[in-house]
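debug: dumping io for the single-chain case to check the tokenizer round-trip. Nothing else runs in this session.
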Amino acid sequence: MVKVLTQLSLRHLTLLGTSLLGSTFVLMTAESRAATPQPASAHSAPAAHTQTHPTPASKKAKHAQTPKHETEVSGGSEALVVTGTREFGKKARDSIAPVDIVTNRQLTGTGQPTLRDSLALLLPSLTVPTGGFDAGALTDSISLRGLNPNETLVLVDGKRRHTTANIYADGGPAQGSTPVDIDMIPMAMIDHIEVLRDGASAQYGSDAIAGVVNIILKKQNHGLTMRSNTGITSEGDGFQQGVFIDGGLNLNNRGFVHIGGDFVHQDHTFRSGNDNRTNTDVNQLLGQPEQTRESVAINAGYDITDDIQAYAGATYAHRHAESYQNYRLPTSLAKYPGYAAIYPYGYSPIEALEEDDYELTAGLKGTLAGWHWDVSSVFGRDYDALNANSTTNVGLYTATGETPTSFAAQSYNNTQWTNSVDLSRKFRTSFWPYAINVAGGASYRYEAYAIGTGSPASYNYSSSDGFPGTNPANAGKWSRDVAAGYLDISTNLMKHWQVDLAGRVEHYTDVGNTKTGKVSTRYDFSPRFAIRGTFSNGFHAPTLAQEHYSALSVSPTAASGIIAANSPGALANGASALKSESSTSAEGGIIVEPVKKLHVTVDVYQIDLRNRIMPGGSIYGSQAHSALEMDGFNLPPGSGSWTGSQLATHWFANVANTRTQGLDLSATYPTDFGRYGHADWDVAINLNRTRLRHQATSTTGAPLLTAQYIAYITTAYPRSKIIFGGTWHSARNKWAVSVHEIRYGETTSQLTYYTGPYAYSTSHYLEFQNVPKWTTNASVTYNISPKWSATIGGNNIFAKFPSVVPEGNRYLGVPKYYMSTSQLGMNGGYYYLDVSARF
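debug: decoded output
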């Protein structure tokens, strides 16, 4: 570790000098870092104060009820929240549903340059994939409460965010998801994040089954915030550099403009085992992809009158990312001397992503006759161009005498345009002793998804090796319209008894109508003890990608893929049209202060999810060959005689009903040491279990799931995740030390055999336990001056890794760790140096 930190420090100092000379070195605010990395639990840490422009309209609004855009985060349970409620001025500690507040200070305190990985270190109920491979590794996804990423809704300033176009098509619990890639939003622009751990489809629509993540952007009208973060893994690879900058401008004391951006680069990490064909580590399939991401955002508001504000915002991000495919032996080119000369030592095909993501928001809001109103339009788009590099098309070479080594293979486009009207007002009447808050609204959303063709060389003949291009038969553009309306009424039944009723109707032009409702209540027995509960139903409409996506992965002697559920090949083998997932959720909890300053919350939940969408209906060998040919795929010569272990395909289907049960616990406690400073202690726990209640069958009567896919749904997420520790601050706030432990619970997988009597069996698997793991995160911060601070720290400082997969269950011996779970990451330790400032 000392050696790695020395290397890190030297590299950071070199970069520091170079960056200063080039005037590009940026650092973060001393205020947001001055008190150091905050506790790893998001429940207790004070939230950074958000200064909004003091316009006449905002002053008037604060005197009455704080509008959504003027929310001030003052700290922890005292923070005002806007997620899970339509009331203004609601504090987190008074919330009718469990809400975690994660501040910018906490995010940067993790030392991670990406938002996804920062949240994973702070929230027990949130998980990320252990690792990735193929195109799925090139998009960053998050999951709540052990459910697919598609069941978590992401908002930005309360508005639905568009999703990625890059579907996670590889096996695992996230398969089939096209989540919001939150790392395409600049971390520098994030003020805080509200995570609602509760079903909220009745309030926000599709996808809010597991919960809602609402990202609140900065709205300060002054200041300049800068930060540089440099890190490296315990193995000496995976170097990361992050540069973050943001600042605010005052618009004539009536408005603000806040602008920020990130630059993040991550090198490859290599965690593969030896390739059993060469007995060397030449096959670098397993590990973190290389990634370079540039992102920028602008957020603005202006008071046109004392009662009307115009607001607008935009985000743009570009990502270049690369991941490796399995190594090809030099002998694979023995018949092609021209290309054997290019790759004399063999080659590893590379999947390269060029992604452009943007979103534009504009709206007006204000007050009229006591009503708060908000009219908005949000347009978002994500475009992904996937290229196959460092590879060949040997079939094309055989036919024409030449082949490119780089191919434009696939492209995907996802568009979302949402137009909304929201109204709310608090009434006081003579017939009811308590205020009644009434909210309602309507929205229209247009969604479009497109699959583009690759270059002819990428799909003709034997296709580009490792990553075939999309042929015209599987390309196309699809769209749908979504209209919705909702009503939300909240009041008190007694002085200390709150109740909230919400209902929503939606119409999808492709899957029909949905109706959802929610009843929430809370009773405060005293200022130190309260109970709360929720009962709701929800839904997730199948995405256009799940309905229409198809792709094939090809090696010289094997191929596997996904065909569209409505394609001729799928329909001929038992597929049927996708239906919406639907859920019924129940939750109950307590909020208690058993002794002064010890704040504890405990929530239990149950989510019954029906018609879950996952790949199903696997077919093999000649049956798969026939289906793929019906759908227009070009297969390698001789593939018609391939066995079931060599050729397989499936499609997305409503495969099962499940029940997820769990518990969330959080506790915080401060300790004052007088002239020796003070410490903030915290603990947060998530216990989670999913059971299969019913497995669906195809139209032919065949089961849609194998034991392997049942494990993806039920046991690929950890049974528990525990975060606990504390942060000590010196009396004058010059020093701070933070130490936190994270325990990742067990995951269980069903592994394919690649050797032995059950090699490539589709009915016999090895049950494999990825045993619980403990990791330690620690950091030391020194506040150099009121404006500058520096932190040195590490996550997983003792370099723990997932359990090692048995040799007989690794394809070619390479996947040393099992990628298709969401437990401990495979990179090992990560050590960083962070320098920050504010002007």
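debug: round-trip ok. DSSP finds 13 helices and 35 strands in the chain.
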